[in-house]
Amino acid sequence: MKQTVLTVENVIKRFPGTVALKGVSFELHAQEILALAGENGAGKSTLMKILSGIYPHREYEGKITLNGKECQFTGTAMAENAGIAMIYQELNMELDLSVAENIVLGKYPRTKWGSIDWKQVREEAEKTLGQVGLHLDTGTIVRNLNPSMQQLVSIARALYRKPRVLILDEPTSVLTEREAQKLMEIIRKLKNDGISCIYISHKLDEIFELCDRVVVFRDGEKISEHQKALGYDSSRLIEDMIGRRLVAMYPKRAAQIGEEILRVEHFQAPHPFAYGKNIIEDVSFSLKRGEILGLAGLVGAGRSELVSAIFGAIPKTHGSVYLEGQEIQIREPYEAIRYGFGFLSEDRKKNGYVWCMNIRENMTLVTLRSMVKRLFVNAREEEAQAEEYFQRLKVKAPGLETMITSLSGGNQQKVILAKWLMGNIRILMLDEPTRGIDVGTKSEIYKLMQELTENGISIIMISSEMSELLTMCDRIIVLGKGIVQREFARGEADEVRLLQASSCT
Fold it and tell me: What is the pLDDT of residues 412-430, one digit of tens each?
């Protein structure tokens, strides 16, 4: 019989107007990788915040036992000291501190005089970085690292605290497939070293490859449990997650592609970190009415910078943009909005929504000016329009006045999409639109994209999921080394050819 490391018994967590967890119970065994699966809003992240001490024990009902002892955490430090460490989906790093400082933050080794022992800081940082297979100068500022390196540093920081249980929330969401495979090798090594892991992911292929057991959540309840030893059934697991049969993940593309609507010529965009250098050197492409154009490439290829510069979110270095044959100048996002552009950015927390506003206020940000009557916003019209898209996109929330920060990632994404759909858009640019989103919500977004193109709206989509690009896009442009490496028509490419083009081989 396997030793039980962590036990969760009948945990209930209430928020105003909703119950996020409804008596959840499960066990985590020694040297096990346990997956928690479910739609956005199913309660997974809420439970992890309880286990990591973000929600103290007085704010929930139920019992948590770690290594046979009941835990009543009052904060994250207490959870870490007990042996639970968490890697968050949105990396919580001090970007302007060094790698070494981030790893030992809050647990600095001290000299006998009480000052920080910087020699030991560097030694401990190098030791823990070695555990995750990362070898770099520990004095490097974290802001200068790419996302995959930042992810490994965050894992090293957790390992420095010598956890018995490591919780990973969507750890591969910012990684390429190759980087994700490397991370999974590291997690297997940690398992062999005696660490038990809770792994949260919407990527079922990762779960099937990596995890020993899967616990499925839906609407705050534990629905089912699946064991790798007995064989995983993807259809059954998805049905358990969404509560219905998923007929097809991807809709059939049947949009009529029209004439050219957008043309970008000899575009250059600045590098986000290297002053005076360009990350996009010379990129030209066109977009047709009703078309989904995919932008592929490795992390650092400049895909996000390209669309951000087109939208005016960052200044371009050089290049021209033509809309329906006429050259236009976009220096600020409001000018792009006026021309009918919408832009769903990669980092929804930073650029997608206003954290101190509710759902209604975030939905109507772009169109609010059109609702002003005699110097005042027509509140009735604002609420009616927001309610229409709230229902159309099936946002899971008590109502329009719910704060957007209390929503799951998938429902936040729906609110941001509604913000653009409420406007008179002609071109919608989507940067990783399904990152960190469950399979049910992914399917809804794909169907919405299909509907938009059927209505003549053109879409530029960036995605790190090759299957998503290959299935949804009418054409795919591959970026690398600042230029267009290859262009593929629908049906011409496969994952191997995309990867070869992305690697510039």
Answer: 889 999 999 998 899 999 9
